[in-house]
Amino acid sequence: MLEIRNLRVSFHTYSGEVQAVRGVDLTVPDHDITALVGESGCGKSMTAQTVVRLHDMSITEIKSGEILLDGVDLLKLSDREMQQVRGRDVGMIFQDPMTSLNPTMTVGAQIAEVILQHAERDERGRSRITKAESMARAEELLREVKLPDPEKRVHQYPHEFSGGQRQRIMIAIAMACHPRLLIADEPTTALDVTVQAQILELMRSMQQEHQASIIIITHDLGVVANFARHVSVMYGGMIVESGTTRQIYEQPEHPYTHALLKAIPSKGMDKRRELTVIEGIPPDLIEPPVGCPFADRCPCAMQVCREHLPPVTQVEEGHSCRCWLLDPDCPPGMRARRRYEDDVHS
Amino acid sequence: MKKYILGRVVIALVTVFVVITLTFILMRLIPGTPFNTGNTNMDPEALAQLEANYGLDKPILQQYWIYLSNLLHGNFGTSITYTNRSVTEIILRAFPVSLDLGIRAMIFGIAAGLLLGIEAALHHNKFIDRFSTLVAIIGISVPSFVLGTLLQLVLGLWFSGWIKEVFHTDFQLFPLARWESFRYTILPSFVLAMGSIASITRMMRSSMLDVISQDYVKTARSKGLSERAVVWRHEIRNALLPVVTIIGRMVGGLCTGSFVVENLFAIPGLGKYYVNSVTARDYTLTMGLTIFYAIFIVASTLLVDIAYCFVDPRISLTGKRRNRREEKR
């Protein structure tokens, strides 16, 4: 199980310190799929990359927090130990399959590489697996990710594959050492809609076969609905609402979650109606607002929202939300107003 | 592949033919003749006799025709200034020296350039990066005759003088001139290599910086590979690709002799013959050397292009159509 506690991460730019992650708590249960949702620049990629320390460490600063993978604090590991975790315990898939593979290595070699790196070693430090064995395993993995002709394809170069096929290869690389956790950073964003579904399906079947957990980062709530069991919605560097997918879809509490759900186009929608947009832009994280980060764009913002950060409220078992509307002292009229806003827009 | 190379050879032949024709015309456009470069007081009758001897009195088109047909028989003709020496003989004698110097400079330039470029990119904006910039600026902006004379003065004279004083020996680590043993080759190779060091350094540095920020390097790190494996297998390997092209272009330039460096260090290479042949209007020698250079450069470019498709799997010389068909399948 992965547990992130009070994680704060900043990175330094010419214009100042960007507080990209401002106190994130996230629990990823075993053998399950958790989605991290939010618009660009809300800190979701940063949160996930911090787990394996994959960002440019010369400009990034981890201010505080703990990242516990089965009880081990990953933030306390040395660079050398972290290197062992990457690929072996945590696999990663990235957004753009067209650029994520090395153009001058055969895909087989790129899969075999990770297998050899984490292979068991004898007392002289030599891997117990030979190169040929690792290539055979690579071929098997290509079969597992349902690439046709794996025995031929394993010797081909990335440019001989389509985007969807390359993402399958990335999945093969990420799952090669049976990691406990798979972090998928927008794995379907760069793909065609028809291919998206296939890739998600493949990820799910691999997850079940290998008994792994998945964190999927996405801004597409449509992807989440059919794929993830848990959802955490991020905004302005913090998690504003989290719960099971059912809870989030059927009973969203945070106005931001509401707005996101309303922005999804649906099949039976009136064609003349325009899609709902969330007015405004996300907050500047160099000087983040003292209050709720969404206050400036929120239709139900109150005085208190701009002045104080709302606490996390437990709505029901497993469903929590960071919003002043849920405060016991919140005037009932305000809550009613949110419902009213909903009705006006839908 | 065979078809591609054949096509390239045909194009190369056309290129060489154009070079022959253009040089022939340009040489005749330069005022003066081999025996009268402008200020001779030779007897006009004797002059005419001499020119007739070399066939220079014939109509220009006929001369051109004779030259071409001789060339087809592998005959480059005899030099006019170096009487009784054929052009082929001069090339055979002097080219190995130029080639030797060129290869030394190539090895030196490639090794130093790649090393500096890689280190600069890996330590972006640190001391070594600024140092590489300095080297590149010096290498590109300081002409070889300045650098060469400076090194001769400092290392050849002052340093040798100091050694003589301290160790009481006449041994010269960096001799001023001539081409005899390894010691003699150090300074000229370095001076000749300086330009290539500069451009390879810059090219490798920017290419490395570009590769370092690529997604596949992030993928490599996410696999838990050691830093060494990431740098060698994923970064350097890919960063080398664009550099190979400019190295290819350098081969021709470096191996065919440099007039300045060869003159400065009194090296009996081709460069001296080339420049002298133009000032002396030695038609046959100039033509012969130009054709030789052209063939050499065209051939080395072709070789580099073929080598490139082995280095970069995305480039196939002929297979484009076949690949597409395969993808559809």
Protein architecture, described:
The complex is a heterodimer of chains A (346) and B (329). Chain A is of the alpha/beta class and 346 residues long. Chain A has helices at residues 44-52, 79-85, 107-117, 131-144, 150-153, 163-175, 193-210, 221-227, 245-250, 255-262, 303-307, 332-345; strands spanning 2-13, 16-28, 33-37, 60-69, 72-73, 90-93, 181-185, 213-218, 230-235, 238-244, 312-316, 319-322. Chain A has a domain at 1-102 and 179-265 and 276-286: P-loop containing nucleotide triphosphate hydrolases (Rossmann fold, 3-Layer(aba) Sandwich). An eight-stranded mixed sheet of chain A has the order 6-7-8-3-9-10-12-11, with helices on both faces. Chain A has a four-stranded antiparallel sheet with strand order 2-1-4-5, with helices on one face. The radius of gyration of chain A is 22 Å and the shape is globular. Chain B is mainly alpha-helical and 329 residues long. Chain B has helices spanning 2-29, 44-53, 60-72, 87-122, 127-141, 144-167, 182-212, 215-222, 227-255, 259-264, 270-279, 283-311, 320-328. Chain B is flat, with a radius of gyration of 25 Å. Chain A binds chain B through residues 52, 54, 83-88, 91-92, 94, 96, 99-106, 113-114, 117-118, 157, 159-160, 162, 170, 173-174, and chain B through 214-216, 218-226, 229, 233-234, 237-238, 241, 311-314, 323, 326-327.
